[in-house]
C-alpha cells in the first residue's frame, strides 16, 4: 500500500496531524491521532469485507480491483479527521476541510480523480448517518464510532456521544 504510505508521509498530512496533536494535548476526550486514523481504516475495511459488498463496491465505483479498493478504503480512514484542527480553530466543519485536504494529499500520492471523488464524498458523509450515504460513507461513520474504547474512558459522564456509542458497554467489537 505504497499510496497509503505516501499519504502518511505527505507534508500537509503531517502538518495537520501535528496541529491537531498540539490542540488536543490536554483534551480529556478521545484524540484524533494517527492511531485513531489507522483504527478507523482497518475497521472500515473489515466492515466492507464482512458485509460481502467488496465486489459491488469495486464495480459500483469503477475501481480496478481489490488492491485499489483496499487503498481507497484505507485512504478514507486515514484522512477522515485530517481537518479536525481547523474545526477547533475556526469552527469550520472538519469533514468539509478534511475533504479538501484529502483531495490535495491524494493527488500527490497518485490516486486517480475517481478515487479522490469516492474518498472525499465519504469524508463529507462520515459525521452523521443519513439515507443518501454511499456505502463507504456509511461504513466510515460506523468504523469511526467502533474505533473508540468508550467502555474504559474516564470521560464517559461528560461525553455527549457516550450514550449512543456501541463500544460503551462492550470491551471489544472490532
Automatic annotation (TrEMBL):
SMART domains for the chain: HDc (SM00471)
Pfam family, one: HD
PROSITE patterns (UniProt xref): HD
Domain HD as annotated: residue spans: 33-149
UniProt xrefs under Gene3D superfamilies: Hypothetical protein af1432 (1.10.3210.10)
Top-level taxon of the source organism: Bacteria
Coiled-coil zones: none
Name of the protein described by the UniProt record: HD domain-containing protein
Native species: Thermacetogenium phaeum
Amino acid at each position: 500500500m505504497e499510496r497509503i504510505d505516501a499519504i502518511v508521509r505527505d507534508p500537509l498530512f503531517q502538518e495537520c496531524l501535528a496541529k491537531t496533536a498540539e490542540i488536543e494535548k490536554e483534551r480529556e476526550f478521545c484524540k484524533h491521532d494517527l492511531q485513531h486514523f489507522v483504527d478507523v481504516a482497518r475497521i472500515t475495511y473489515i466492515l466492507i469485507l464482512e458485509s460481502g459488498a467488496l465486489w459491488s463496491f469495486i464495480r459500483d465505483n469503477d475501481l480496478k480491483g481489490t488492491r485499489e479498493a483496499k487503498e481507497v478504503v484505507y485512504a478514507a480512514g486515514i484522512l477522515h479527521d485530517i481537518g479536525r484542527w481547523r474545526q477547533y480553530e475556526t469552527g469550520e466543519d472538519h469533514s468539509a476541510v478534511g475533504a479538501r485536504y484529502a483531495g490535495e494529499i491524494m493527488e500527490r500520492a497518485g490516486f486517480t480523480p475517481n478515487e479522490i471523488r469516492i474518498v472525499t464524498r465519504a469524508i463529507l458523509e462520515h459525521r452523521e448517518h443519513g439515507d443518501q450515504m454511499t456505502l463507504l460513507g456509511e461504513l466510515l461513520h460506523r468504523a469511526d464510532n467502533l474505533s473508540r474504547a468508550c467502555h474504559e474512558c474516564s470521560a464517559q459522564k461528560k461525553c455527549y456521544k457516550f450514550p449512543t456509542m456501541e463500544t460503551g458497554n462492550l470491551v471489544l467489537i472490532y
